[in-house]
């Protein structure tokens, strides 16, 4: 409450009574001084000593009440401001992975690998983001070796194997490699910060950011990627929900094995389950070529 001063004085307004005026001054920090006047009535018939004793009693009573009020106020705990939760955006997450420097990337080289019971797949890619050129080396769906180079902007003129097999595989593998970028690039997706949630695997919690795609358009409409973002704005785990009937319907995996390839941050190892079965997706031989250079920078 602050410092309180009391000043007493008497004023006679009638022949029968004397009014005692109490001046209460409250010094309220830097706000200023508040003056309050209280008028108390004392009858003239009483002798002066009696009136003086009453006045002293009144002054001490008022002072005691005010002191108690000040003490009570001073003991009330000050409410500390609640921290404002940071809302994560797709752009903020992508910046963690090197979005601001992506324009300097001339080419990205990587091998996408999948291991789960009875299956072991490796697909090699070289992607030039500025020209849209894609080079592939691996196998087709029948297990036959395939090498192909095509431009993504000219899919209509490409053979069926490129349109029906290679391009969908490229999209899948590139999303595993660079999904934090795609969450920002894909303007049709709805990105929502859902706050702190329990991690899908193991103990702990992280900020859940859901990336939901529309029900129409694209290779996998209605897909949802639930990203669990740590304190450093990196993806720690994710849950992939497929929107269509193709299996697997749900993939739960870690995002670990982080490496830097030039200015890009890449998660190279993902361990978890696909529809309840163990699965490992890992990215090897990651390298980037910067604009104006012919040298590959290996991830490390």
Walk me through this protein's architecture.
It contains 3 helices and 16 strands. 20% of the residues lie in helices and 46% in strands. It has 2 domains: 3-75; 90-298, outer membrane lipoprotein receptor (LolB), chain A (Clam). Helix 2 (90-96) packs across helix 3 (160-185). The chain has 300 residues and is an alpha+beta fold. Strands 4, 5, 6, 7, 8, 9, 10, 11, 12, 13, 14, 15 and 16 form a 13-stranded antiparallel beta sheet that branches. The two termini are 62 Å apart. The protein has helices spanning 48-75, 90-96, 160-185; strands spanning 3-12, 17-27, 33-43, 105-116, 119-128, 133-139, 145-151, 190-198, 205-212, 224-229, 235-241, 250-254, 256-261, 264-274, 277-290, 296-298.
Q: What is the CATH-assigned architecture of the largest domain?
A: Clam
Instruction: Identify low-pLDDT runs.
Output: 1-52, 54-78
Shape: globular
The helix content is: 10-25%
**Intertermini distance:** 62 Å
Number of domains: 2
The assigned structural class equals alpha+beta
Largest sheet: 13 strands, antiparallel
């Amino acid at each position: 409450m602050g410092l309180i001063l009391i000043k007493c004085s008497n004023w006679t307004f009638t022949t029968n009574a004397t009014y005692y005026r109490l001046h209460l001054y409250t010094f309220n920090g830097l706000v200023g001084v508040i003056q309050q006047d209280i008028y108390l009535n004392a009858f003239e018939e009483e002798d002066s000593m009696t009136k003086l004793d009453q006045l002293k009693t009144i002054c001490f009573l008022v002072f005691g009440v005010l002191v108690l009020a000040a003490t009570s106020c001073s003991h009330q705990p000050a409410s500390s401001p609640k921290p404002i939760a940071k809302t994560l955006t797709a752009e903020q997450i992508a910046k963690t992975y090197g979005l601001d420097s992506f324009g300097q990337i001339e080419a990205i080289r990587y091998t996408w690998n999948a291991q789960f019971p009875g299956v072991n797949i490796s697909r090699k890619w070289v992607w030039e983001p500025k020209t849209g050129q894609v080079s592939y080396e691996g196998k087709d769906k029948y297990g036959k070796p395939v090498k192909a180079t095509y431009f993504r902007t000219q899919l209509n003129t490409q053979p069926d194997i490129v349109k029906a097999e290679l391009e969908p595989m490229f999209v899948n593998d590139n999303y595993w490699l660079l999904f934090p970028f795609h969450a920002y690039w894909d303007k049709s997706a709805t990105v929502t910060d859902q706050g702190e949630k329990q991690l899908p695997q193991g103990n702990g919690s992280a900020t859940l950011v859901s990336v939901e795609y529309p029900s129409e358009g694209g290779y996998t409409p209605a897909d949802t990627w639930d990203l669990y973002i740590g304190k450093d704005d990196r993806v720690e785990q994710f849950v992939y929900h497929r929107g269509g009937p193709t299996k697997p319907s749900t993939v739960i995996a870690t995002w670990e094995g982080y490496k830097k390839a030039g200015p890009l941050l890449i998660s190279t190892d993902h361990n978890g389950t696909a529809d309840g079965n163990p699965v490992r997706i890992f990215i090897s031989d990651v390298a980037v070529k910067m604009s104006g250079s012919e040298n590959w920078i290996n991830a490390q």
